[in-house]
Amino acid sequence: MESIARLTSFAVSLLFLLSCLSFTSTEAYDALDPTGNITIKWDVMSWTPDGYVAVVTMYNFQQYRHIQAPGWTLGWTWAKKEVIWSMVGAQTTEQGDCSRFKGNVPHCCKKDPTVVDLLPGTAYNQQIANCCKGGVLNSWVQDPANAASSFQISVGAAGTTNKTVKLPKNFTLKAPGPGYTCGPAKIVRATKFITADKRRVTQALMTWNVTCTYSQFLAQKTPTCCVSLSSFYNDTIVNCPTCTCGCKSNSTDSESCVNPNHPHLASAVSGSGKSNINTPLVQCTSHMCPVRIHWHVKINYKEYWRVKVSITNFNYRMNYSQWNLVAQHPNFDNLTQIFSFNYKSLTPYAGLNDTAMMWGVKFYNDFLNEAGPLGNVQSELLFRKDKSTFTFEKGWAFPRRIYFNGDNCVMPPPDSYPWLPNAGPPKMASLLRLAMTVLASFVFLVAYA
């Protein structure tokens, strides 16, 4: 029996090891957006005496996750000794050592160049279509017209035919920090282009794709947002869990958070530190999160019920432009009206309509200001009741999950949700039962003493 147990244990361990090895580092699965990714397409448009000219385009095929300021950074490693003679619509961050060249000096000679987008307002002779947005790349659902970013690159010391060109390796994409993992470049069918008059079709000489997928764990080890709850039928406001995104430092000199009533607030959030938006400077709260989403069950009608959703920015270093919110609730299949937000149903699985994507109305509330009086946006949702499922019991009226800008927000524990007046909370009910049991035992002992 002991040998059988050891054999079974070995088999389980082996299966676990094989299952771990079966997933590559490029795989990151999002249940709400199972096919979402950023695809980088290289189209070789012409050959040059020592290389080629290509147009590189990044397509954001993610439904609700976007790249915000200060924008994307793309990197790779050349397969041979290639150099970049020139670029249009983007630039490398370093030129590298080009001392071996006499006369014309390449734009970049590094083995592993790093490319960034140009800023809006770039001179026209340095622009191509879909360039010069400061690296901002909007999501496919929210703003498909701005979900692509392109640049042109002239590569030298490279192959001059389909058979001699070597594909770049080790692609990296930062947006602007970590989170994306890119797979190897793969040669695909050459891209075809239709002329403006739609009477002629041309095609690239050679095309390869790189696919990058996102992992929140790689992007941020700690949460970036949290959810609080309240309802009309209970005075309790369930706040975000304590220390959700960090804990307040006991040191009075710490810059981990800012008291909004502090007399030196202006100096604390200004200066050179404010430009470092990757390091949040948040308002002092119990949860210490840069963003909080509040879900309030507001009104109960005969045929409908109403919810108020508020988003508050506690970060003094960050404005959220083109923000979005994704929420899961079983009653979204009967959403009747939404006020002051845009809305689209996300249906990653056929027949299941429980996920909604919401974002601000352009020029009205699509810009979420940094912490302060204006750092808040809100809307109301009106649901039609489905008598077969609707209830206010056991926290049914509250969302199952909420995402802000693609990051999963921390929910309060289920046993803390607001309860109906005629039903005590689980903890109080348990304490009451315990007290009644103790009292009954005491009365029994006294009666038969």
UniProtKB/TrEMBL annotation:
Q: How does it sit in the membrane?
A: Lipid-anchor; GPI-anchor
Q: Which residues form a coiled coil?
A: none
Protein's UniProt keywords contain Cell division: no
Q: Where are the transmembrane segments?
A: 430-448
Sorted keywords for this record are: Glycoprotein, GPI-anchor, Lipoprotein, Membrane, Signal, Transmembrane, Transmembrane helix
Q: What is its main location?
A: membrane
Signal peptide stretch: 1-28
Annotated COBRA C-terminal domain residues: 224-418
Q: Where in the cell is it found?
A: Cell membrane
Entry GO CC: plasma membrane; side of membrane
Q: What family does the Swiss-Prot or TrEMBL record give for this protein?
A: Belongs to the COBRA family.
This protein's name: COBRA-like protein
Q: Which organism is it from?
A: Morus notabilis
Lineage start: Eukaryota, Viridiplantae, Streptophyta, Embryophyta, Tracheophyta
